[in-house]
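Good morning C.,

I know you're traveling, so I'll keep this short. The sequence:
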Amino acid sequence: MKNKTGDIIQRCTSDAERVRIFIAEQMVSVVRIVIMMGLSLYFMFSMDWRLSLVAACAIPVIVGYSAFFHAKIGGSFEKCDENEGILSTIAQENLTGVRVVRAFGREEFERKRFEKQNVYYTGLWISLMKLMAVFWGIGDFISGLQVLLILVLGSVFCVRGTLSAGEFIAFLSYNMMLIWPVRQLGRVISEMSKAGVSIERIMYIMNSPVEKDRDNAVSREETDKALKGDIIFENVNFGYEPDIPIVSDINLTIPAGSTFGILGSTGSGKSTLMHLLNRLYELPEENGKITIGGVDIADMKAEDLRRNIGMVLQEPFLFSRTISENISITNRNMSMEEIRKAAKIACVDEAITEFKNGYDTVVGERGVTLSGGQKQRTAIARMLTSRAPIMVFDDSLSAVDAETDARIRRALSESLGDSTVILISHRITTLMQADQIMVLDKGRIVEMGTPDELLEKNGIYRKIYDMQLSLSEDETA
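The tokens, ready to paste straight into the viewer:
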């Protein structure tokens, strides 16, 4: 939520490559520079200490102005790096959502948006190159001035007889061995400022908090046993931002082996509750507790918990692999018979077999090969193969028609056995067979009961029921 995909990709590619180049090239040259400077100064001082002092004076000057430009170059490069991340994000979003862009005729707008950012990004690099030009120009001037002083003073010493011509020529050779490594040291310092920015951006990712289980986490066997029990939310409060609650005062019990429905408007917190149940978001201790079979999910290992909770999201993600590989992703040793069995329950087997390559059909990026309903049903089949004791359907039948919805629900009720099923839906017919239904409004429970009890209350559930029933009758007419 906090970081965009394009920026993360940029950190893991461009920034990582810049650090690699700095370590492989610049860091290696540091050793050579130090050795050449040390040897040059040693031989120069052995010939004439006066000229050697003049030659050595250039070293702190070059290092000093390099250090001065270090901060300026680092700041400018950081802006360039950040805006490269923005540019990568724009490109990534438009390539991923190319169908949406074309469907809404946004090609020209998005092209201009990309070009505007690209022009700004290019301008930042031009400014950085101008700064680098000044940096290297000053370096050339100081280096040339140092050589000129050595040449003039050395000539004077030769005329006075304090330095032989041979020693002077040798001294000039050693001075050239000194001045160019010193200038190279300035380059290393400037490149160091760029690498430093890249390292900070990479370390932001590397130092991000790692998901950890509690030291006293329960064993896998205890978790597997507990996950067959009741799910209880106790005084649960949660918000993605501290001052903006998404769900408040949630107290409910979902009996083991039952079918539990959740109904609510967009943004009412339905999906958030399931993400908390699966520990995709950690619930702070002061914000309540969620237990399964009497065990706090915070005391379970995240891997063990998620292995036993199957989830199908409203917008399922499919990998760019074959359909059979997507369905069997939880178990690579699954037979084709088992794969097809799960697909038949999800009512997608018939659609798959109609493809030219059947189950060997390669799903395009993000499932682009399949329709919305086919993606959802494939995701349901994938979840069914996990045989999880808790199964969550997060509005996962929204892209299928009412008839297919009914067929899938009938097949699921016959095959899920003792699994606890949680159905989240905007469609009343999807929830009609649930043992109990909870209605959420603005993050709070406003109604709870069986479908018949909620119809008698004449509350939100009844209003939605009447509205969808009338729409259904209008469509039939």
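Safe travels,
E.
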